Structures are given as C-alpha cells and as structure tokens.
Amino acid sequence: MVKEGSTTIRATFETRAAADLAVEHLVQQHGIVRADIFVQSTSDSNTVGSTPSGGDLSHREGSRQDGALNGEIELSVEIASVIIADVQRSLGEAGAIRVSGR
To answer: Cα separation of 19 and 4, whole Å?
Structure first.
C-alpha cells in the first residue's frame, strides 16, 4: 500500500546486473532501506534478464549457456514523492530501459 506523499516506482532492466546496480544506487545515494526494494522477473519464469551480462558473457572456454534468459527484471520501490525525479535519474543511469510511477 502506498503511503500518502509517496509513490511506487517500477523500473525494468535487461540484466540482473543492472537491476543490482540500481539497488545499490537507491540504497547508497537515496538512503532507501534495501528490504523495501523488490526485484523480480517480469515473466513467470526464472531469469537473469533478457540479454547476457557479466558471468553470462563469453570467456576463455567459450560462451556460457546456463544463464536463464527468460525475460526482463523488474525493480519496484515505494519512495517519497519529492525524490521521484532523482530516483528516476538514478535508475536510468543504472541501465533501466523503462521507468514508471503510480
């Protein structure tokens, strides 16, 4: 439930690494409690995102195939309405492909 004077922000990422970076931005730059930030798949399937990154990229022995690329990652968090623009900017800098508020 959204408290008065606050809003829920949702951001979508192509990789789990980008979503994790966004969590760090929210915690370190905006003082949001980590337990109040929710990260999940946008589909019903387990996924690390829709594109490979980090450990999913090719390495010396070849390309890894074990990362479940079954859809995008969604981050949601309830924030004070006065920091919406700053949070949206941070999410974009972390790699969000879509950001919305309600």
So the answer is: 27
Residue 26's contacts (CB-CB under 8 Å, 6 or more residues apart) are: 32, 37, 77, 87, 90, 91
pTM: 0.75
Strands (E), 1-102: 6-13, 37-41, 73-80, 98-101
Q: Within the chain, what is the greatest distance between any pair of CA atoms? A: 53
Give 52-70 pLDDT, tens digit per residue.
Answer: 565 545 554 555 555 556 5
- CATH assignment of 6-101? 3.30.70.260
